[in-house]
């Protein structure tokens, strides 16, 4: 009996091992066959061979993680072949699968769309489900438009019932305009609202005006703004008049609103109108002085004060201006930066104990704002000046750990390891830009689709992931768009990833570095690469407002001078010519300015004449004191951006 039980146990164990092996074999087999068939089908799809693609997508096994994507592609193929009913069936299979992937909302939305086109029952149910299950998605927003149309299609008899349906449709169309004033269906929503022939409230007219404005229809926006009340709509009146080129009217509405009604207007709108107002004056300073003379006390007064303080050049007056601003608005949007400016002014005056006291206050009150890296760094400099060396090193390490992608991390590193030289990185070890995520995304589906080259589907599934949108732009050769998208996405992150994270390569790609390395001469090639990134974001056709051209944004006169000196090709727009001339020009600047990269970078933006003038006017003992006193805000920020980019390239590559 015991022996039989023993054999039974062996049999069960063997059966389990066999079952597990069979499961693993079939699963792995399904996955590999799924990848193979999907890749082949995608090739046909890209060639618009929808019939062939449909058949091959159908061969993706049920056990593959690509099955729902294959069904989605089959639905698209069927739709493109005019077989909408078949498309609905394929989408419905995805919806009924209830798998938790990003492909579900778009599938249900597309299915509802096809049902709407074929006037089938059930479209309304599915549009409502999209809104309920995926309320923050673009598909939920678009569903409101179709629900409005469906309400109108079901128009009953009887005046009361008709009015009720019209009001329901109006709510759907208004919801769309609120969520997507510049969306694909926004103008269509407005047209449908007009057809409703219902009384519109002040809010309704303003909503329509904003949508027209967002779509560039400024005359139509004006017509609807005229149906609103000025106190509520003054900022929209002003912005619209500026777009129409009516500067005087725009300024009138701006002054009227800032004096009387800014408290009821969003801060964002107030700031935007202030910037537009300033742009109408001969110089920026003239516009700021005019606003400052109004002695405004409502929303925007602190912004005007902040702009005014930034225009002050002389350090003592600048400090007094920012101190007054901080004391007046201690908890305002610009209080942290105002306190920082008072802090740095004390530092530059060598009043280290006063500066230290302000630094402690800043770090306690504003633990993580834009000025935090600078304050932390200069607290280290103060500790060093006071011979508190351990404390100084502690602050420097804090900057590197908490703000690794900042200009001040670069400066902190220099102060910790001065023996390594001012420029610790001399060349790059190039690594390719790849899909920005190693770990699985959406059960590995998006990763697989990315490596299979199904960019269109990845783009649809990941509309809100700017890094993936950046990668897709990169793969399509849109390098400038790619770099800007990735930069913006990284800036939105409160906690930055470590330097091994693949997303950094999208922010700091190494386009044209092969050319840079060939023509660098005596220059550090990473500095040249950093200048290209900050000047043009790798757009070889970039042209600035003042006429600077190409990757290194050279003025034609500067380029022609370098061409004559070095007998270069005369085409400024060609990448090799532009970078070669830029490298030679930079080398000349550096040679004329004591062979210092800091001064050459400053001159590249502000002009060599300005830099030599600063030598005699500024009082400074080191690079930090020089940079913080650069009178041109644009040049000061440019220097910090170039060195920050240099620092990031060195760490990443």
Describe this structure in words.
The chain is mainly alpha-helical. The chain has 4 domains: 185 residues, Serine Threonine Protein Phosphatase 5, Tetratricopeptide repeat; 189 residues, Alpha Horseshoe (Serine Threonine Protein Phosphatase 5, Tetratricopeptide repeat); 54 residues, no CATH class; 140 residues, Lysozyme, CATH 1.10.530. 70% of the residues lie in helices and 0% in strands. Helix 8 runs antiparallel to helix 9 and helix 32 crosses helix 33. The chain is globular, with a radius of gyration of 31 Å. About 1% of the residues have low confidence.
How much β-strand is present in the residues? under 5%
DSSP strand tally: 0
| Name of the top-level CATH class of the largest domain | Mainly Alpha
Low-confidence residue ranges? 21-27
> What is the arithmetic mean of pLDDT?
91
- SS content category: mainly alpha
The tally of structural domains comes to 4
What is CATH's topology name of the largest domain?
A: Serine Threonine Protein Phosphatase 5, Tetratricopeptide repeat
Task: Tell me which CATH architecture of the largest domain applies here.
Answer: Alpha Horseshoe
Alpha carbon gyration radius: 31 Å
- The backbone outline, from C-alpha atoms, is globular
Largest sheet: none
TL;DR of this structure?
The chain is built from 35 helices and no strands.
Features:
mainly alpha; Serine Threonine Protein Phosphatase 5, Tetratricopeptide repeat; globular; 653 residues
Secondary structure: elements and pairs:
Blueprint: H1 2-46, H2 50-57, H3 67-80, H4 84-97, H5 103-117, H6 123-133, H7 138-153, H8 159-179, H9 186-196, H10 202-214, H11 218-225, H12 230-243, H13 247-260, H14 267-279, H15 284-293, H16 301-311, H17 315-328, H18 335-348, H19 352-365, H20 372-385, H21 389-402, H22 407-416, H23 445-452, H24 455-461, H25 466-475, H26 479-491, H27 503-507, H28 513-519, H29 525-536, H30 556-566, H31 575-592, H32 597-606, H33 608-617, H34 623-628, H35 633-652
Helix pairs in contact: 1-2, 2-3, 3-4, 4-5, 5-6, 5-7, 6-7, 7-8, 8-9, 10-11, 11-12, 12-13, 12-14, 13-14, 14-15, 15-16, 16-17, 17-18, 18-19, 18-20, 19-20, 20-21, 20-22, 21-22, 22-35, 23-24, 25-26, 29-35, 30-31, 31-32, 32-33, 32-35
